[in-house]
Batch of 3 targets.
Target 1
Amino acid sequence: MENHVSGQSNKPLTKPAHALERDDLVQQLNTDSQDGLSSEDARQRLEEFGRNELEGGGGVRPLKILLRQVANAMMLVLIMAMAVSFGIRSYIEGGVVTAVIILNIVVGFFQEFQAEKTTESLRSLSSPTANVIRDGSNSTIPATELTVGDLIELKVGDTVPADVRLLESINFETDEALLTGESLPVAKDEEAVFDEDTGPGDRLNVAYGSSTVTKGRARAIVFSTGMYTEIGSIAAALRQKNSKVREPKRRPDGTTHPLRHAESWTLTFTDAVGRFLGVNVGTPLQKKLSRLAMLLFGIAVVCAIIVLAANKFSDRSEVIIYAVATGLSMIPASLIVVLTITMAVATKRMVARNVIVRNIKSLEALGAVTDICSDKTGTLTQGKMVAKKCWIPARGTYSIGSSNEPFNPTQGALSYTEAAPAEQGEKSVNDGDEIEYSSALEENAELKDFILVASLCNLARVHPNKEGSWSAIGDPTEIAIQVFACRFDYSRQKFLDEKNPKLKQVSEYPFDSDVKKMSTIFEDLDTKEQMVYTKGAVERILDSCTRTNWDGPETVEFTDQMKERVLENMEALASQGLRVLALASRPYSPQQGRRASREGPPPREDVERDLIFRGLIGLYDPPRPESAPAVKSCHRAGIKVHMLTGDHPGTARAIAIQVGILPADMSHLSHDAAKNMVMTAKEFDRLSDEELDALPALPLVVARCAPNTKVRMIEALRRRDAFMAMTGDGVNDSPSLKISDVGIAMGQGGSDVAKEASDIVLTDDNFASILNAIEEGRRMFDNIQKFILHLLAENIAQAGTLLIGLAFKDSTGLSVFPLAPVQIMWVIMITSGLPDMGLGLEIAAPDILERPPISLKAGVFTWEVCFDMLAYGIWMAALCLSSFLLVVYGFGNGDLGVNCNESYSQQCDTVFRARATTFVSLTWFALFLAWEMVNMRKSFFRMQPDSKKYFTQWMYDVWRNKFLFWSIIAGFVTIFPTIYIPVINHSVFKHTGISWEWGIVFVEAFLFFLGVEGWKWGKRVYFRRRAARLGVTADDLEKLVFSDFYGHDASNGSTKEAPNKGLD
């Protein structure tokens, strides 16, 4: 593969296949152009060249996944704590920490392993079968068994299974959009021979693997398979791993200073350490959490040193275990498990919303997306041509309503107006009164003549399949016109029915790029009359027409003024984003030339003349009905949508206006502002990086877009600190998918290479599903923020309790800890673990898509979260300490006993009771705080402000998330065994059963709610005043999408200041 040349075979030929004559290629491949390979020869070649499939990117690597579970700062802290515990013979504490480590590793490994397996399962072949000729006979085989030298047959609807050189063909065209980005089918010429350096898009004697046959048939010989195909070469280039070794800086002559080598190796080593600890790899949230882990590790070490220093660095085991416990209190041990499970659950939820996550690391990044760069065809639109309007001079304009099934002629209402398109202007595509299809044909000979051309000058076939849905075979343009004819029950099959045919096709003149017309001649089997039916480019058809039905059923001379009027209507239809064709016909009789027959078709120039102009038909790729609402929702969520398409600028502009990417009214924009909104790739690429950065805003529509244009757009957005998602389906989209922050591939129409380069795949190829993914990403980000706040507030409470608890010293001068090490691990893992998972399952807030994107700089740690963390942590620590003080000093005698950190004795009974009271209080606080975190601002008792259940609404709210509810109930229930079961209470948890102390716990719980609700009330007041001052609503965010263009347009240059991204 390293020296493989584009167009060459798996085993190099004297020249690339497109540069060889057909016979020469057959000879070099040692095959037979009539009978193909023998079965034995095919088997041997398959062993030699390998299967016809794209190689995987390494597969699932369990060891690498396992290493990732260990290689993070939080796990290293736990491992160190385990080692210290066992080193001082504190086997119970060491065993608990070991159990926590194993639980983290096992759950994390299996979750990530399942995610990797899902990624692998997405890889599929583009063509599952191939029609091959071996031993002189046809057979259908799996495409993976195809090999070099195989002779294959291709027909309309087939997917080309490998790169092939055409031997013979008839009207053969392929859709190479997945490979080259060319939106129209490419006509092939098997007789042509090209220069060796001819580009892939111009090799007209070759058909590429993954392209589809849209017209005609062909016989071809396979010259390259698997990774040696064009699609395979791009896949191989994408899989090249970036070197992890930093190159030393060099002088202009290529030499380098010796110190530069030392510098590069130092940087390489620090990069490796950073990758191991996760501080320089992954998404912004993962990097931030890795840095948080390093910070908490440092704080844990400092806390441990403080404990040792307070006890004069005593080497007694109880002092060391106190230091370990204080260090552990700062480590949210369950964070890794909860984060992994939350992401895995979000991944499964997204499958139900037509989104498959290939790279679980990109999931949380969706919430930070500020810009979406979307393709048009198949994403914002349905990806299939539809006949939308037709204009018949003597009648008026007929329009077809929107439908989700472009092949289904029974869907889509018919509207009619006498006004011509030029008289309507750029209005809605559904103007006029709605009428029935059957009634439209009544006493309407002009429409019937028009539909006959649409039906019979056409090779496409539209029919219902066995499942009851409609399918079509043929060229996309012809399919659209054939569906239009089928709406009026004028399908081609109806006239050519095998059992009772009404017409017989006697001649056919295929579309030619020179004449830009197609014609057929049909004979009526009853009357023996023949008719010519022609369609093509408007200007070419007008040149061939001499008559028309202009004001009524009478045929009149087609004057120059009439032709000018036709061109005006063509421009009016094109301005609505439609591709316009003209239709014409005429009777054909021997007096006007020899009688047509299959054996002796008359010359084309004798047929395509003196035609009667029948009308215009406008085709377009319709926007999905859900695209416009989805784009509007993106704008309300503070997300800009850019359309990058290969279409004509006029079509792109029209579709962009229809779906809301461009404002409906652009009349009040200056010429420069409107020009900046819509650019062609040529105009965009002509600008330097500096000129792009100087634009007030990057264009919202780029037409005639090439792959390198998409890459430049991503780079320009990144320089503006945007966080972008890029959609794509073709191989040519893969580079931009790979370098974007979130690459989104199409699951139905996308290539395997595009899917492999992407982070997520849309199973329905629908733009609205991108919004689903972003909503799910924001929901998950919100929930991660909730459980991180919950965990870290507990850590602060535990650490604060233990550090202040250093002041509680017994008669020997050693500190008596208010919480035992196992109690701390119990609260971190058991009490908090399940509720945190429950918080990860919370539904999305109603206004989740009416806020700005998440700030990448702040991430989950906004100022609000940081202040909440301190407030809740300090309040819980104060309440825990007051519990301990009340039992020991308020109702006890103040005796802290001797050796109460090690074992229970009668002298230590008060301390053990105080410790149990503190443990129960902290456990209750942790459980109640989980419910309070369901909404970080609203009161727990009034999460639904509009509810009439003033005193009972909270009961419905806690029951809504059943996992969280039962997790909290389990937390309450599991307290009792730890307190009252002998041995477990004294030897493991270092506390004893309590009785009257429960009164203290209830009072502390009441005070906890009082403090948290008071803090939330203060926040609500603050944010209400702040919102009123800024005046930022979802409507403002929607307007801000176009504000840069309007602001640039204004004479005074003033615009409303955009809100900060991290507003919430």
Target 2
Amino acid sequence: MLRACVRNTHFNKTGRFATSLRLSPPPSFRRRRSVAAHSFSAAADGSRLNSKMAQGAAATATFLPVDEKVDFPKEEEAILRHWKEMDVFHTANKLASGRPKFTFYDGPPFATGLPHYGHILAGTIKDVVTRYAYQTGHDVERRFGWDCHGLPIEYEIDKLNNIKHLSDVQKMGIGVYNEKCREIVMRYSGEWREIIARTGRWIDFDNDYKTLNTSYMETLWWIFKQLYEKGVVYRGFQVMPYSLACTTPVSNFEANLNYKDVTDPAVYVAFRCVDEPIELVAWTTTPWTLPSNLALIVNAEFVYVVLHHEQRGVDYVVAECRMESFCNDTRMVLDKDVRIVRKMQGSELVGKRYEPLFDFYAAEPGFGEEQLSRSYVIVGDKMVTADAGSGIVHAAPYFGEEDMRVCKRNGIIRGALPELIDESGNFKSHLKRVGGMYIKDADSEIKRMLKELSRLVHAGTLVHSYPFCWRSDTPLVYRAVSCWFIKVEDYREDILRCVEQTEWVPRFVKEKRFRNWIADARDWCVSRNRFWGTPIPLWVSEDYTQVVCIGSIEELERLSGRKVTDLHRHFVDDIEIPDPRGPEFKPLRRIPEIFDCWYESGSMPYAKVHYPFENKESFPQCFPADFIAEGLDQTRGWFYTLMVISTHLFGAPAFRNIIVNGLVLASDGKKMSKRLKNFADPVEIINQYGADSVRLYLISSPAVRAEPLRFMTEGVRGILKDVILPWFHAYRFLVQEVSRYEVVTGRRFVPSADAAVNSSCVMDIWVHSITQQLIEGVHREMGAYRLYNVLPQLLAFLEQLTNWYIRINRDRMRGAFGEDESYVALASLYSSLDAFTCLMSMFAPFTSEMIYANLKRAATNRMDSIHFEMLPRVSGVVDEEITFKVRVMQQVILLGRTVRERRRVSLKTPIAGLKVVHEDERVLAAVRELEALVKDELNVMNVELSKDVSCISCQITPNFKALGARLGQAMKQVAAAIKGMSQADIAKLETEGSADVLGHNITLDDVVITRRIDVGALAHPDIDGDSNREVAVLLDFTSDEELRWKACAREVANRVQKLRKQLRLSVNDSITIFVQPSGDTAFEKLSLQTEYLEKTLRRSVVVTREVPTAGKVHTDTFELGDQSFTVAVEVHDQ
């Protein structure tokens, strides 16, 4: 027969086990430190231990004693040293040899800065998943990588050496410049290694890959040749996002990485028509592009109005749909300052010519009469929209992608144009008034020039979102440049087919963000006009009619006759190869461009193993990757380039599963900034609270769902307080009580996995069942990479273990029901705590290692480290009936506590009764079976069960999330019908599990049913109650004399326990307890409570008229109401 295991203590009802443990540790170890306390840091100081316990522990104890307090950061550092001494990471890899492979790709960061919280978050996710793979029987290569090329490195060198232009690099020498870049590439690699290790992440730095390695670069050449031979590489002259600070084009996806709100000029400019006396008004936020204007663009389908300005005597033309906005911006009042003269169709404007604003182009040698005849004309295109501007767009084709397209289509551009602006964004020095000026600085001068020419209609400002260079953090411009492209637009469907073969967590990133990006992706500009990077392996003739793509070092050596040891520019730029047409032609030389560093990182699956020059046979085993993870910002970065390259190479995705995390922001919601100092240094937070607390905080945050996280130091502190400490105290409690058990019985504690299964105690079977449910749930969710569903299960289990199982069974574990019962409870706790610790090892590697090192002493065949262990698998049957019964009991107790709190009646105060109300006999039977626990937890004298639900009403609401997708347009009618269900209909739905509503089968998952109790209808001031979805309770607060004296006895017991604590007595110390009430009535009434007091205090209690004074007697006197009491503890020599 199953029984509820009731503890017989009624004091210290805190409701939270962890808090009670911290504030009131068990008497046997209270306020003491053990010299031999289990600690990697050996931080315990020497304080006396009860002699009998100390001798027993030294001789036979299974577990090392655990200190009451632990400095978790210092303990973690000691564990790190322990791991280093054991070489645990490499040992783990050796142990995994021969297992099935699990492939993980680690995206390469730059080592020019220190890791931040975003790196720690992504690194923790990677660490959790790869630890899980290892601990489920896989061989996992965890290899770190470094991004060593590109703008981030060059930008640092440019700042250090005051390099402003490409010519400055040429003067210095590309070789000197590149070697300076090489010197700083790994500047912070040591700090990275140290910080990443301190976070508990296991990753191989010794066998890392670097994008600057010659073997890596050679694979990049091979990949490019494959793509070149497939016809997906081409050279084009296009308008591209361009970084003036870095003097190079960037790809379209890079331009989307860093948007900021900026204030720009917003000017209306009048262009004078030469065909009739009208002035066409265009609006622009880039006045610096006006000197490069070649055309005006209208929408042929729009209606345009001619507005006569009375004071200025001119006729302005704007689109009718933009007239109101134009008048508002320029503060012109219609029919006062301006009036409509006439209207015309946009098509009537097409073909008309206008005067150029400036003569900059006309003075350039490359701008001839033929080009002039094609320029300064009005053309039509639907790019002109009704949502901004004046309805007339000024076109500067070298500085706008759409401008270029329209001008080419209309024959305005047929060849190269003179360039008025250099590669650094400065107007050419010979240009009058603006020569040598930076384009944004020239805006003001150009506005002055327009005003002088009476062409400035209005000058204002506009705040808008604008793209910035992701590396230099300076505004990008759009500029026409010659670039090399990899085709994407023609292969979107192929890429999307590969995307469909991948699983993304969370899924919306794939379905919306990534798919939408691919659907609109442009051809990828992979060339950069820079120096430190992998040279593009194209050798060309001067006119580009002859192009040879090199795919290996061997091929270059064979064609050139030169030995090649390094592939950087200063080693290969001077290498020439013969022109295939014959010796009479000049030899081919390499083009000056290098690869985009995103091309390098996107090629890492192949380049890190030097494929296909090495590892050709083993490569299929590690491609595609089983798993990758990075931040949401990589959707248009690394994730994209991985997918483009793998699709072109193999028609397959580069990875199968991916976790995308959100961005980590400062507590104020802004981007973390060293300049603003709006975040705490990660190392400082780790040193204060421990890496496990930081890991758990990050991994339990919205960021794991690809949502932004505002990093709060208080959140890390909360994890330490609410997770790490309760876990530690549960472990410490187990160690203490096992030590007590071994001293008292003289038997060694040997845990049994079957103890809980074979127990007759409901709570033992329950804790075994929820442990198995936890194990199953963790494997299910981890297998689907849903980390956001894993940690909540683990933390919910910890709550169940500490605040329900341990608290309810605490006295049982202390031997109150005999040592056999103590063993069963301790063995049950050991099994569940051991399983929980193993499952937590992925998330909190330090704390789990510390606890495991002691727990493993009770078992055989355990590994040297918890991280070598395989994770537990489900064993034994889950008793669904018992888990149901305990869940009902918990609901009753929680509701009862809520009512007590509302009435401000402490749990220490006994109350008359509790009535549990529910129409379902199964619910009432669950309470009946666990009635003793309910009585004990709520401190009630009587429990009554009732099916009378007259005071309770059930409320039902539709679960719109569950029903919406299924019902579609019928949702509104079905929802109304559900809300209108009668009490009988709701009861029937609950009983049968489903119901027909307007022809639709509605189940319990489709609705939310809550119970509401009408306390007012009870018409009794001492009756109060509460309810939830599952059950309703009524509490009787009627007071009588018996209850008052029981409360008095509870306070007496509490005072004795405080006196014990002050005296630092253990549960094993021999004592006699005396209680002296004042007055005959108090003596008589308290004498009746002797049995309760002895049961609670587990010692002989004497209610006396006078406490003894001889011997080692310690007393405490207090008042309770109008009564005075003295409690005394007599300590006996042992």
Target 3
Amino acid sequence: MNQGRFEPAQKLFEQALAADPHYALARLNLGLALLSQQKLEAARAALEEAAAKLPSDPHASYNLGLVYKDLNETDKAIAAFRHVSEIAPDEPDSFYFIGVLLTQEQKFDEAISAFQHAIALNPFHASAEFGIARAFQRKGDTNSAREHLARFQKITQDHLGSPMGAGYGDQGRFSLAEFARSAGPAAPPVIPVHFAAHSIAELTPPSAGHPTAAGPSTGACFFDFDGDGKPDLFLVSALDGGTSRLLRNLGNGKFEDDTDAAGLKLAGAGLGCAAGDFDNDGKTDLAVCLADGVRLLHNEGNGKFADVTQAAGIRREKGCVSLTFVDYDHDGDLDLYVVNAPGGNANNVLWRNNANGTFTDVSAETALGIPATGAGVVTSDFNNDRAIDFVIAGGENGAAIYLNPREGKFAALPGIDFKKENLPPAVGVAVFDFDKDGWMDVAFTHAGAPGVSLWRNVDGKKLMRVPLPDFGWTRGWGIAAFDYDNDGWLDLVAAGETNSGGELRLLRNLGPAGWADVTKDVKLDAVKLHQPRAVAVADLDGDGAADLVVTQTEGMPAVLRNEGGNQRNWLRIDLKALNDNKSAIGTKVELYAGPLYQKWEVQGASGYLGQNAMPILAGLGSEKEAQAVRLLWPTGVPQDEIKLAARATQKIEELDRRGSSCPILFAWNGREYEFIADMIGPGVVGHWVDPGERDVADPTEYLKVSERIARPRGGLLSFRFMEPMEETVYLDQVRLLAIDHPAAIEVNPNERFVSNPPFPEFRVIASRNTRPPAGASDDRGKDVLPLLAKRDRKYVTEFESLPFAGFAKLHWIELDLGAWRADRPLRLLLDGYTDYFTATSMYAADQAGIKVIPPYVEAQDANGKWRRVVDDMGFPAGLERTMVADLSGKIPPGVRRIRIVTNLKIYWDAVRIDQTPDTKDIRVTEVPLVGAALDFLGYPREIRGTPASDTWYSFSNRSPTGPYARAAGNYTRYGDVKDLLRAPDDRFAVFGSGEGVKLDFDPSRLPALPAGWTRDYFFFADGFEKDLDFYAAHAFTVEPLPYHTGLAYPYREGQEYPVDAIHLRYELEYNTRQRSGKLPASLRYDYRNAGAPKN
């Protein structure tokens, strides 16, 4: 059920009932499985029987209430929810649904009372705030309605709470399947596992007659430096006269010392290390804390490393203790956080990756340059808002969690103070979801008794301490979470000291039963350590059982081989990022295997002074496959992989999908809906432009639909306007203009994407006898006239791309206009498309000192000098289309050579010179809108040309599911939206991923065409769209709504969306379809006919 596989769940519940027809809990969950498939009558029967047998179980009556609600049996639904409120009086959701149903019955006072009760129980109940606003509005109390609507918007846009959705588990906690009280998720029985101890010298045969020089060590980092798929080991020396060592994994449980061969000359003592591909070249690099400061070592790819610390601009300050690679700003490259030792004025340092081989100290701007903490650090999305946070051991309060604001200063999570808990400062730190609730929990080691503590993450808002066995430790050091017995429950290992010396302790996760100390059972009690430090985890021999390495400052590193953990099934998940940092650090991974659910985050360094191997080793217990592995990559791309076989390495490559899109338009051509282009790209709101600056949207656009394509369907001209990816669309008006003209004339709208106002005004550009340029070349001198002579999807492509989406190095096309007349207009008709930049890529490029340079025009004067004549020519507003650039009066008479210069990835297809005088032989007639219905339309198949960013879509081949998310908030309800789309009044049809409007226009009253004339159409859309982008303002919520203004979004206080009676009524009556922002059950395309949405 929790995997969204309702039909198989139904069959399993039916099997349970066949075995025991009186098993009421199976009957209840069967009803929920049927409800989730909208098999309402069958669900009613199952849940009525379950409710009769389980009168004290709120799940039964709650879901029965949901069934009655969907069947419009309001009185029965109210009675069911009232029963829930009696047996579970502290649950707000039942009162919310009572309020909804009473509002439908127009019993507004009773409804308001129910909503107030829900809000009293949960002050951040977003749906209850919206519900009470509707009740007040319908009662006629506009002021109260406005007040509660504002609270709803505050709660959603500030992520204080989420509205309820309509799917399984999205309608309150009682809408989830119920586990049997005695058979909830629990760890299986113990199996015999033990760890065999070896010194590193035993496993590293002498090379060239010399034994390894690895000796007493501090830091230990696993990473695959040579790309052979095996975890290699880097050890930081603990001795002033020692040398840090790089040990290559030979794959047979043995290592080879490659330190000298790799060119690593790291003499002297050090502490922590971290590994990550900071320059995204596909090879994992290394950072080390040595006594004389940080060293950044670039993996050259030939088995050698180069010290690039100075070239990268990183200060080599003394006092470095630990460090980690992290993409804190989600821009696709790894930054570096350095923890220094306390003393003097020492601070921790955050180095931001500039994506050009250099780093910038942003400690002050981010407020992460806190007084030096001198202990471990790990990064994690603690509050599940998709932004990477920092969990830092040590410091004034013993430890701290710093929450990521996306831009600006990190803020410490309040309430963490180890002094109040009588705990010494933390030393090491690990994050892991030990209780399978989807929130990353935290474990620390401490600089004193009890040595170890564990904390449950409570909804990303606070930590709650979890009891652990007492080890009698005087202090703790390294710590790591791993599944030692592959039972699907993450366990905990830590290194510490007692009065008798150093030791390891292994705690087995028993699920709800707590934690058991199994150190003796696995023979780790026999391992005697001398001043232990780091603990790092890797499957050294690839046998599916997780092994350990423990460093010692007074002894060689100990290798502890796991013998027996692989009796249970396992799965190794090896990620390969494409559009994110190549190490995939920050990726969220969720696994579903039978009843097992597990969650991980791919981390850089963790514990204390170490780093675990990157591939995730997932224990599957007795399951033979993972039914689904769900990924959320750092830049926000969700992805599902299904049916992954156990006992194998599964390499998962990041989905190669476009990062963003605009709504797309299809027109009925007599056989099918044919793709025209995307629209309202310039209407994007909240797009990052510069620090502290957002774009000003241009919400209107005309798009030509040729007479060849637009054909009547049932006497009407029919269109589909939809969102194929995951933007939130706010569509305000649509129009269709019939453009009648002589057949010898070509017509185009005066459209292009310009960066700032004034935006292009509507005009019909009439062209006759256009011609290609006399010559054309690119900035390398290559003749590109054959590519630009006609529109054929053969583009000018030989510009050099930059590592930021939509950006290239500065380049141009040079045109010879040929002879032209100065007494006539001079226009360019340019065909092509733009591979759009994103808010994130603009942010990342800005860090490297790169700004958007929209196309500008230069003309070559009589002296051969190039002079700029147009600052912003504009560019195609999305996928392949014709744009118009009016150069009239801009080019000096007699000048033939111009060039169009930009650093954007614009693919020019054709260029034509147009000198047609203005003509009156054009007739424009509006075709009335007669039908507009909002609906779910599915995901049309994406077709890619050459280059791959040249994209178009097939509407006839659609999938009901796709790899996309939706923003949380209130969308426009499905159905008739014609009244919303008639005029630009800021009453939008709001829709998201896979949704769109079905539009019909009546051409029956269009005038007859004169002889020799033809008719094209201009489709007009007025609206906004908001990207689900990390650096878009309010990207993950529908609210606040945009509106027509010359201001940048989000608007300042006092400039928000109108709150007059008309717009209040619109929001409360139309935008009633709530979505929680939860990812859908499936993120995969499925283009089979079964289940495909209708037209």
